[in-house]
Amino acid sequence: MHDSDPEGKRLPIKLDSTSNGEFAPVGLWPANIEANRLAHEAAATNAKRLGCSKRAFLTSSCGAASTLLAFNSANAAAGRTGGFFELPRDAALDMQLSRAQVGPARQEFILDVQGHFVGTPKGNSKSAEVFIKDVFMDSDTDVMVLSFVPSARDAEPVTIQAADEVRRLVDKLEGTHRLLLHGRVNPNQPGDLEGMDELHEKWRISAWKTYTQYGPNGKGYFLHDDVGIQFIEKARALGVKNICIHKGLPFGPRSYEHSQCSDIGVVARRYPDVNFLIYHSGFVSTVTEKAYDASGKSDGIDTLITSLRKHQVKPNSNVYAELGSTWRFLMRDPEQAAHALGKLIVACGENNVLWGTDSIWYGSPQDQIQAFRTFQIAAELRERHGYPEMTPALRAKIFGLNAANVYGLTPTEVKRYAARDPVAGKRMTYLEKPDPHFRTYGPKTRREFLRVFDPAG
Fold first, then answer.
1. Residue 104, preceding peptide bond in cis (omega within 30° of 0)
2. Backbone CA torsion sign across 286, 290, 295, 296
3. 321: β partners
4. Is residue 305 reached through a cis peptide bond, with omega within 30 degrees of 0 on the bond before it?
5. DSSP secondary structure letters along 77-126
6. Residue 387 to residue 294: CA distance in whole angstroms
7. 348 close to 56: Cβ distance less than 8 angstroms
8. Which of 272, 276, 251, 242 is nearest to 261 (CA)?
9. Which of 169, 172, 246, 442 could cross-link to 211 by cystine, CB 3.0-4.6 Å?
10. How far apart are CA 278 and CA 307, in angstroms?
11. From CA 154, how far away is CA 354, in angstroms rounded?
């Protein structure tokens, strides 16, 4: 008996309008609506063939494979063939084959560098329990980095204290390698530069998180501005040299220029000992991702690539492209996904693209993991633009090996520890009768988006 969605009305791979609260939700395109329809139709048919309920089928690896194959059919019919989910049709009915394709038989080390906690666990342990279930029970994630949204110091939706309480709850389960923390710093507002000492000394943060398009009066800043340089210099002095910068997903017109990446190449060239992790990789939901435009006039991910080229920042150096919300949004359009991933891997290097999901805004990250495990860039685009083939080795780098280098983790040690910690034990017991809900938590309409927070400052 499944307590969540017993009639199987929700798909395991979620295509919907949910956003992470940093950009207005975008409604589904006709091809997405058709993809969802075909997926439900295939699930009902395949469940009958296997003699199980639709819900039981959808919670299986066959259900995930069947859904991705249905998406392929809808995308091909719409002419979106630049990328696709590469798996055999038999995976929709063969449990062993589907487990080998989408998991959980796969054994990659998965380090999600952009996770979010929705709500506060103080006095509400259920919120933290939901977080742990979504991330560590219902997905193959090994380690997650908890990040933050932009805010004034006296109005943080999730405080460092609340994030630390979630970490402590996981620590009580002896999952001590499973959660890392960011420290939010916006150097253009009073107190943030001074607060970096406490973030480092008291909260054991692993990286800094900043929003260059955010400011007290709705005006952002550039990393090469005086306040930006002060921020970088202090990070270096404190010995925490991972700086995570929100770029792309602009909050609005007032600081749109600061959401673009022109400053990244400047500071990356000036500070080769600092790692600059570009969250969302400059992606903008209203910009169609295509092959790189060398004219320098294009928006979105191209602004990052242009900045790196202009300042001669080579691939696999100190600039990292992060995929939170970017991959989740582009799952609905494999043509754009192929261009986005291809460009980033070429420009930043195969060692410098990082896995992030922006969950739990999008519910459990497992559907993003399963989709990425099977995603392939079409041969025609690879040949024309020099994009790489998405091999298991390349996916493994993006899933976690690259970020492990940034955060100083040894994947084999983490895997060995995590395989026998109580979190793993709880998951093994849970997977005997899994009950994923396939829900999302972020805003799905513009009205809901405006209620999340006011990013204009």
1. yes
2. positive
3. 278, 353
4. no
5. HTT--SEEE---GGGGT-HHHHHHHHSSS-----EEEEE---S--TT-HH
6. 16
7. no
8. 276
9. 246
10. 12
11. 31
Shortest CA distance to 396 belongs to which of 356, 435, 351?
351
Instruction: State the Cα–Cα distance between residues 136 and 132, nearest whole angstrom.
Output: 5
CA-wise closest residue to 377 among 397, 360, 355, 394: 394
Helix, strand, coil shares, percent, the chain, to 5? 45, 10, 45
- Among candidate residues 414, 407, 379, 411, the one with its CA nearest the CA of residue 396: 411
Residue type, 48: K
Dihedral, CA atoms, 267, 268, 274, 280, nearest 10 degrees? 100
Give the integer Cα–Cα distance in Å for 21 and 34. Answer: 26
Burial environment of residue 436 by CB neighbours within 10 A (0 to 12, 13 to 18, 19 or more): buried
Kind and range of the H or E element at 54? helix 54-58
Taken as a whole, the chain contains a residue count of: 457
Give the Cα separation of 115 and 403 in Å (integer).
14
Question: Which residue reads 């943030």 in tokens?
Answer: 192
The CA distance from 366 to 134, in Å, is 8
Return the structure tokens found at 240. Answer: 């925490």
The fraction of the chain above a pLDDT of 90, given in percent, is: 74
CA–CA dist 309, 293 (Å, integer): 12
pLDDT digits 0-9 by tens, 211-259:
999 988 888 999 999 999 999 999 999 999 999 999 999 987 778 999 9
CA 260 to centroid of chain Cα atoms: 19
Question: 55-84 pLDDT, tens per residue?
Answer: 999 999 999 999 999 999 999 999 999 999
Quick check: 90 and 254 in contact, CB under 8 A?
Answer: no
Output the pTM of the full model: 0.93
DSSP 280: G
Of 324, 248, 339, 327, nearest to 286 by C-alpha is 248
Q: Which sign does the torsion angle of CA 129, 135, 139, 143 carry?
A: negative
Q: In sequence order, what are the residues at sequence separation of 6 or more whose Cβ sits closer than 8 angstroms to the Cβ of residue 343?
A: 289, 291, 292, 301, 302, 305, 385, 387
Distance (Å, whole) CA 232 – CA 23: 27
3-state secondary structure (DSSP) of residue 185: coil
Encode pLDDT of 260-296 as tens digits.
Answer: 999 999 999 999 999 999 999 999 999 999 999 999 8
**End-to-end Cα distance, the chain:** 47
Listing DSSP states for 280-348 in one string gives GGG--TTS---S--TTS---THHHHHHHHHHTT--TTSSEEEE-TTHHHHHTT-HHHHHHHHHHHHHHH
Cα–Cα distance measured from residue 160 to residue 182, given in angstroms and rounded to the nearest whole number:
8
